[in-house]
Amino acid sequence: MELEKKQIREFKAEVVKVITETPTTKTLVFDLNGLNFDFYPGQYVMLNVPYKGEILKRAYSIASSPTQKDTLELTVKKVPDGRASVVLTEETKEGEQFLIKGPYGKFVWVPEMGTKLVLLGAGSGIVPLMCMLRYIISAKLEHVRATLLYSNTHYEEIIYREELQDMEKHPNIKVVHTLTRSHPPNWKGYTGRINADMVRKEVQDIPNSLYYLCGPPKFVDDMANILAELGVDKHSIKKEKYD
Ligand SMILES: Cc1cc2nc3c(=O)[nH]c(=O)nc-3n(C[C@H](O)[C@H](O)[C@H](O)COP(=O)(O)OP(=O)(O)OC[C@H]3O[C@@H](n4cnc5c(N)ncnc54)[C@H](O)[C@@H]3O)c2cc1C
Predict the structure, then answer these.
(1) Over the chain, what is the mean pLDDT?
(2) Residue 84 CA, ligand 1 centroid: distance in Å
(3) What's the CATH number for 111-241?
(4) Pick the CATH number of 9-104 from 3.40.50.1360, 2.40.30.10, 3.40.50.1370, 3.60.20.10
């Protein structure tokens, strides 16, 4: 399905709020200052990040729903020894301004593409998937059914943990967690990496669903292999690799 391209804009925006999501992850809320910034759920922007006298240009998926018009949210996870992600998660304060350009990307979903969604994410790969879930809820798309399989290393690293829990109150949204390295004693989710059995158990209509895979390149490749093993048509799979 060919979607009409959204207009690419370049604008300075002020950080009006910094939200701590996990010990390594922050959400930066930018004031859109009346700009009518339009994008498809799943798209990203390029952010100019000042670092030791240079400007680093980095891609960040949009976390907030396109129905949210006043502010734009980006969620950044600190990469060990990373540069931009360290500036954004450890040094950035309310009142700072950044140059933003976008939206970009083909990792998008609109209801016309399919109404049975399976979202597979690892770590910060949740961000564009969260945008889709927030959009489903805020636009009241009750005919859309979405299943999220979200993999993290540790419980404390689950981004948007409480909001994801609240989302499960919606009968059309299902959230499934797995933890790969440690888990609390009373943990009710899965442990270990997402595998074919988990997908078989948790996804209702495997052949007729639309799949969105996002996270580190290896995670995305592994998930694509699992889906191939389950007989999913490769045209039903969209991928976004955070490399
Ligand atoms: C489409 C897209 C969307 C994305 N969306 C998000 C998002 O929503 N949230 C998010 O958190 N991330 C996202 N990313 C990843 C993001 O763009 C950055 O890659 C990430 O924040 C790391 O940037 P950095 O400057 O901190 O890391 P860099 O400094 O570029 O380092 C990256 C890696 O290289 C290593 N490294 C650093 N310096 C050197 C060096 N001098 N020599 C060798 N290796 C080095 C680091 O250890 C690190 O592992 C997205 C990426 C893409 C492509």
Answers:
(1) 98
(2) 7
(3) 3.40.50.80
(4) 2.40.30.10
